[in-house]
Specification:
The chain is an alpha/beta fold and 253 residues long. The protein has one domain: Vaccinia Virus protein VP39 (Rossmann fold), CATH 3.40.50.150. It is 34% helix and 25% strand. It has an 8-stranded mixed sheet, sandwiched between helices. Helix 4 links the parallel strand 5 and strand 6.
């Protein structure tokens, strides 16, 4: 029997949204992955690093996929539930998790790390990244690109022309260079997302809170009902995420 609107809403509202493990969406939503394999490349770089820093690590899920860490390995995170989850995952692996508000300055000395990484940072403080990198050190990250999942965001918020212009990879590369870093590699991808039920929508908007600020089931029930009816009539709701892989180097002394 097909789940009702109310049962789907209840399922999405009850799901645990701690951390950045999206496995709850299995069978409810799919997203293509970039061809470059960020987690695999990250693991290889960690294996070769002397001191690493992962910024805005979330629940530490992606970082924890690595098999080997350098002797000095640190991760930062701001959201308390994620700090707890990252600590649980990473401390047994020898990675220190530091609660940090994601605002400058980073709580580390100058030139402390030869590898700084981040997957989907909400904010990027290039001067701080450059400061904590050693000469010759690398910043390696996968960033969210422009207008990512805006089909869903604009379904709830209406047209967002100004926000669509943010997070352009060429702008981020220019900001990195302005902070004194050299761009080594920049790749982009546009990836298909299929959302199969409204429970997945509730889960996502509770988890990725900056997509629809202030989202609640009660406040947005009418649009959730519209989206449920649309999926029932036409099949999965299709959106597109954008990603870019960015590697930058601090010039050798």
């Amino acid at each position: 029997m097909t789940d009702t609107f109310e049962s789907l809403i209840a399922a999405g509202a009850a799901a645990d949204v701690t951390g950045w493990d999206f496995s709850w969406l299995d069978g409810r939503a799919t997203e293509e992955r970039p061809s470059w394999g960020y987690a695999r490349q990250l693991a290889d770089r960690l294996r070769r690093a002397a001191a690493s820093l992962d910024i805005q690590t979330g629940g530490g899920e992606v970082l924890a996929e690595a098999r080997t860490f350098p002797a000095t390995a640190v991760a930062t995170e701001s959201w308390p539930p994620n700090v707890l989850e990252a600590t649980r995952l990473l401390h047994p692996r020898g990675v220190v998790v530091v609660a940090d508000p994601d605002e400058p300055p980073l709580p580390f000395a100058d030139e402390g790390f030869d590898l700084v990484t981040s997957r989907h940072p909400a904010s990027i403080w290039w001067d701080e990244i450059a400061r904590v990198l050693r000469p010759g050190g690398i910043y390696f990250a996968q960033h969210v690109g422009p207008a990512s999942v805006f089909e869903l965001i604009e379904f709830f918020l209406g047209p967002q022309p100004e926000a669509r212009r943010g997070r352009r990879p060429e702008d981020e590369a220019a900001a990195a260079e302005a902070a004194g870093l050299e761009i080594v590699d920049l790749q982009t991808a546009r990836l298909r997302i299929e959302i199969r039920d409204v429970a997945a929508v509730v889960y996502l908007l509770r988890k990725v809170i900056w997509w629809v600020p202030g989202f609640t089931v009660e406040k947005h029930r009418d649009r959730l009902r519209d989206l449920h009816d649309l999926i029932q009539r036409d099949g999965p709701f299709v959106a597109h995420s954008t990603r870019h892989l960015l590697e930058a180097r601090k010039p050798p002394a």
